Amino acid sequence: MISRVVHPYNLQKALEHVIANKGSAGVDGIKTAQLKEHFPARKNQLLQEITEENYLPQPILGVEIPKGNGKTRLLGVPTTTDRVLQQAVAQVIAPLFEPKFSAYSFGFRPNKNARQAVGQSREYIHQGLNHIVDIDLKTFFDEVDHCLLLNLLFQKVKCKTTMRLIRKWLRAPIRIKGKLQKRNKGVPQGSPLSPLLSNILLHELDREMIRRGLKFVRYADDFSIYCKSANQAKATAQVIAKFLKTKLKLTINTEKSGIRKPVNFNLLGFGFVPTYEKGSKNQYQLVVSEKAWTNLKQKLKSITRKTTPAKFEERIAKINEIQRGWLNYFRGTSIAGKLRDLDGWLRNRLRYCIWHDWKKPERKRKNLIRLGVDQDHAYAWSRTRKGGWAIAQSPILGTTITLKRLKKRGYQSLTDVYIELNPSLCEPPYTRPVRTVV
Q: What's this model's pTM, rounded to 2 decimal places?
């Protein structure tokens, strides 16, 4: 197997994949943009070390990223060179496991995605399975048992050199705030191997749920089980919790887990709302969860923060990229009304950035005159003591830095992108002329 891992075609494919994924540098500081030159220069030495079983991975860089609840999540970022080698191994061993994975496992798999998971969930709910066992695993990626995982791997990966590589990557120390820490368990998030390894371990959970005849949906470590009654849901939750603890050595986050009705259940950013139409019992439509709205607004807010050093065109490019990706993910949901309100808020944020960039009063006066404001009003507004946010929402900028002018600078409104992606949902009243929120 190791010969297939180090085959030039497989390594080149892995190199291109890592470069395309971008991502930050590891402890050696080598970025993905530098890999095209750096990796071929070290390739022969790396292959010799691997075949002679002398290869040692470099430590993982620990990076803390904020979570929505105010806490942080620890990501483990291997060096870019290690990421190429891990990707090469993943490309070879994935076909051994993929055919056996459950049809109801949707995370990090070819031709599977989050929208399919949400669609399957809604189908179960439409069948009347309205008691949902929602289980959240406590710090799953930090708690994976190495011995259990390696035993599962060895059932199909009989190559000792490949197994040694994987074991070394699992045991590589992590550097957090300049200090190295040993790792005896866990799979580093940020590694190309971690999605596959998590699916290999949690496939044992899938097998147990299939054996018990349960209806479930799993996306990586996020899974839910659908039951007909509250008693069945309660019994199922107890059985699965025991299996996770005794067989997979994983614990459940009791604060985030529970038995829910569809209206109180969120899955991968989506919520479920009943359709109150005649003869539509157990019929639900998808909506965007409040958490997803909050995350979008926080991202847009960080881009349009006046203290963030960026050119206006750079802000617009980032906004367009984020909103298109977000709206493409949530396409098919009826959110036109909320988008119009968000559009007005976002345009005011952009006006605030422009006002702040003008800085000095005299420059503000001249720019206002160029935008069509008479000299008296331009002078008065350029010397005002009002705060920047108040000015951004005032008529003086709303009637000068208009939607038309913003579009000339590359701005795309959320509503326009939504209509482009959801033409079937945008029949009247959504496409009829509406009062522009300035």
A: 0.85
